[in-house]
Structures are given as C-alpha cells and as structure tokens.
Design goal:
heterodimer, A: alpha+beta, Beta-Lactamase, Helix Hairpins, Heat Shock Protein 90, 3 domains, 5-stranded antiparallel beta sheet, 5-stranded mixed beta sheet, 9 helices, B: 224 residues, Rossmann fold, Arc Repressor Mutant, subunit A, 2 domains, 8 helices, 11 strands, elongated
Amino acid sequence: MTSLRTRLLAGTVGGMLLLLAVLSLIVYVTIRRALFEQLDAGLEAAAHLFAASIEQDANDVELGIEPEFQDARHETYYQLWGADETVMAKSPLLDSNDLWRIADGVDSPAFANSRAEDGRLLRAIGLRFTPRAADNDGEPPRKTNLKALSLTVARDATELRGQLRFLRWLLLTASAAVTALSLLIAAVVVRHGLLPLNAIAAQIGAIRANDLTARVDATRIPAEIAPIQDRLNDLLSRIEASFQRERRFTADVAHELRTPLAGLRSTIEVTLVRARERQEYQTVLSDCLEIVQNMQAMVSNLLMLARLDTRQIVLRRDRILLADLVDACWRPFCERAEQRQITFESTIPGDLTCLCDPDNLSMVVSNLLANASEYTNDGGGIWAAAHPADGHVELTISNTGCSLSKEQISQVFDCFWRGDSSRKDAGVHCGLGLALVQRLVTALGGSVVAELQAGGLFVVRINIGGCSTDLH
Amino acid sequence: MRLLLIEDYRPLRESLAKGLREASFAVDSTGDGQEGLWYARGNDYDVIILDLMLPGMDGLRILKKVRAEGRQSHVLILTAKDTLDDRVAGLDLGADDYMVKPFAFRELLARVRALVRRSYRTKNPHIEVQDLRIDLANQRVWRGSEEIGLTPREYALLEYLAMRAGQVVSRTDIWEHVYEFNSSASSNVVDVYIGYLRKKIERPDQAPVINTVRGRGYTLGAEP
C-alpha cells in the first residue's frame, strides 16, 4: 500500500538531498578553482620573476637567482633546461631530485600536478622563454644566437590538497546533517499535516451500522480534504436512507406476516383445546390451508419484487392477443364479482396484439384486476380498454368505488400502502399488488400511471413500451 | 362475562370467537371499526379485544371515543404493531393491556380473565361462597369436596354471580353479561338457567347458595 507519509517524506527529503548535492558540488568546484587559480598565479609570477632574472649572451647564461628560490621556507623549486635539454640549473632544495620538464609554447605557460619522490604533492608551471641578452656596457643586444630555455617552477600543493579534503569533508558532513535535520522536520510537519486524515479516519471508524445518523465533522478540516468529507457525508446520507427503507420494508413484511400467522396459530390452538368431530377438523384444516395459500401468495409477491429489484427475471417476447390475455386474467375474479353484482366489460379489439412477455404481462393484468375487484363498490363496474399509440399499446383498467384522495393516488404504487387502512379482507391483500405492477411494467420497458376521475373512477393506464402493435 | 372482539382478519376473528365461547365467554365480534364502535356504545362489555388497523375506523380512534364517553370496559389491544411507540400510544390512550400478534391463545385467555377479575375488583382466582368453591382459572366448581360439572353457559352464569357475590344482580345485568348480542334466547331464559344451576349446586340439607330477591334479581350467598 502506498503511504502518503512515506511519499511526502521521500519527496521532500530526496529533493533536499539533491539540492544539497548540487549546491555542495558548485561550492566545492568554485572554491577549488579559486584556490588553484591563486596558487597558479603565484607560480606564474614566480616563474616570470625567475625568467626575468636570467640573462644570456652569446656564450653564457647568467642566473641572478632571487633569494626566494634559495629559501627553504618558501618551498619554491625550480629547474632550468637549456635548448639541448641539459639541466642548466636547479633548486638546491631539490637535492638529488629532479623536476620534470614541461615544454610547451613560449608565451603560454602550462601547469601540471605531480608527486615528488618523497611523496609530497607538487604543482608546477612550465615555461619556455628566451632570456634577455646581457647588457654589454651600452652595446645593443645581439639577438642572433639567443636560445630558448625551458623552466619548471614548482610549489608544494600538499596544504591546498589538505584544504580541499577538509572542504569535501565539511560539505559532506554539513549535507548529511542538514538531510537528517530536514528528515526530522519533514516527519514532524507531515505528521502534523496528516492529522486531519487521522481525525476523519477515527470519525469514520466510530460510525456503526446501527447508527448511521453520524456525519464526518467539518470543523478543522483543511480545504483539500473538504470535498472528500462532503462526498463521504453524501454517501452516508444515501446509505442511511437506503437502510431506513430496508428496515421499514422488513418491518412491513414482518407486520403483514404476523396477522395471518396469528390467525393460523389461533385456529390451531383453539382447535387443540379439546377433542373435536372429524368434520370440524376438516373445516379447520381447510381454513388453515387457505391462510397458508394467502401467505404463500404474499411471499411469492415479495420474492418477485426482490427479483425485480435485483433484475433476476428473464423476459420472453411473444406476440400476444391482448383481449384474450385480459379475459383469461379476469376468469378467477368472475364468480365473486357476480356475487357482488360488479359488471366487467372489455372493449379491447379482438385483433390487437403486442410483443411482450406473456407471463409477466398476465401478472400485471391479474394484479390490476384483483385490485379493481377488491375495491370496486358492490354493484359497480370494471372496464378494460386498449388502443395502439405511437407503436405502443396503451392498456387501461378502471373501476368505480374509489374513495382515495388525489394525494393518496400518488402513493398507490408504494409497498404495503393501503388507502385508509381499509382492507376488505385483511391478510389476503397486503398492499403489494400495485407495487408489483409498477416494477413489472418497468421491467417490461413500459410505464404506468394511476389517476382519479370524476365519480370515484380509479384508472390505471399502462403504456407497454418497446412493444410493437399489429392491427390485422 | 361478555366480550367484544373487533378484528378484521376473518380467520383470526372466527377462531378467537370460537375459543372464547368455549371458555364460557359471551362474545360479540365484528371486522369493521364503525360497527365495533356501535357495539361498544350499546353494551357494557367486560372486555373489548381491539385490533388497531381496521377498515371503517382505526382501533386507536375507537379507543379514544370509548374512553371519551366514559365507558369503563377493559380494553385489550391485539395487533401486529409491535414498536415501543405503538404500545405506549395504545396504553396511554386508555388501553388496559397490549398483545402483539401472533400470540398464544392460552395467554390471551389468561389476560382476558385477569382483566375480568380487575373489572370486579377480585384478585383471588378462587371464589368461595359458603362451601361452594369456584376455580376461575380452570373453570371448575366444587360443592364441599364434590366437583360439579357445568355447561359453559351455566358456568358463565355462576361466574358472573360469583364475581358479584353478596350483591343483588338483576336479570338485565345477567342478560347483558352472559348472553351475546344476537342471542335468540327468550326473556325468561335467565330464570330457566338459574333453575338448571340450582339443580346442580344446591343441596336439600343445606342453606341455598343462590337466593332470589323478589322484584330485583338474584344474589349468590347471603343477601346484603
């Protein structure tokens, strides 16, 4: 895992290290060059001084050696070669040692480093020059036979090397110390800078699944983290709302299952209080079976809802004769409607077809007709109609006897919602039918709306989108 | 004892009414809130068993109206609503007990019996009048050491008289607390059942337990 702290530390300290290295190098090179230039300037001056002190005439070279070259304290050495490379003179300080001959251009002196035989480091300058002619008592010098000589002047550079070594050591030590210190400071700064993250982490860590009302506190949160905090709080709000919906739904399911369970338990317990006739047991068992069937239907509806929510259903596409499908769906409700003198009329054209999943469309229509026959007033009416519209089919199921208000109409597709809590047959219808209709129609690619018309007419209009119609 | 059962889920209503009748209670039952309120107003029920989610009128509204009108019937709320808020709301509106569905029928019976005892300020589930002993919990009756077998209706009559032992109980009171609303019995049915009861519990060699107070009714035990 990438650590923000490690990255920040590595970045700052690495950068610091690089800067220090470059800076140290520049300082070292500059100082080294300055020191050498100083040494070389001294050497050059000495060499020219030496050269100026040499005179020659036709036959001889005359050395007027300065005291500086004789004095051991100055540690300035020289060696002079003639044109034929014979040593013409050398520093008495050299004893038996020799300097080396640096024979370069006449006017441009050349520098070189060397190690003396006793191990000392020397810096030397080589110079080729033609000594001036000896002043022969007022006679002009004769330049014809003047010869070029080679001169090497050297000085001990051990001290300079030592100074440079000390400088290197100083720079390295200082860099190391600065790096270590900056590492320490950066660690403290980064730690302090990341404290809000720890605070947020602690706040998030304190949020428990059973209390999602907690939010990440915005006080003392840096501007960079504020957007994360906002998004996090948004997410928490959404999760809380979703959990609340889930809890309410679970509570509703439990509530709806309790009533038929109570009926089942009570029926069985009351029957078991004493010995009964065979006929009585049969009646009780068929009562229990009816309760169980209703509970099973409810559980199936719930499962269907859950599958629709998680998109686990497979849809077929068949050509369906709509009128036949609606008639088939009405059959189970026919007898009870007749008993209550409810009339049913379908005006769907016999040749109107649509392309849809027959099982799911049947479930939609059955649920709508079940709802209609449940809430229609005795002696009222239920109508089914359909017509093609823009390549879709608009199917309408309407019924009389609706006592809902306009506001309540907007809630009819909610799970477990019942107008006025006025269920006519408690435990049988639990407010899932229309919720299922809405989700099924959506899964079929259509839309559904409910409306209230004059005279208590409840109308559900389904637009089965994505289905082609074919009047033939 | 006469109960009113307001419960809209038919299988539960029917089985409860049956079980309660078999336990010697007179039960009026309905699945509609409005009708339930009408029943509660018309009769002096010992206990009203009330569901909350009802067609016609919500159970809590029925309770509110019943209490506002000063009716003293004990109310047991029987509902699928189980949250703390629901229980508190129900009890604070004047309910005497609260049970959540599903429940054990035996427990419901015991709670109803407890409410009945509270109605008549009797804490002891054993009532003794002379050497007549009544076990209210198990609905058994003894005269001396001999157990007497009674029909549910006879037992209900004796239990009502026993609850009001020492008081004069009118025929109307008996009618209202022992018989159901749609009972087809004639007006002298009370006297007939008193006769049955006397045959079973009176002993010729001992002082009568059930006494007739001319023009006013009956009394169990000595007349006040």
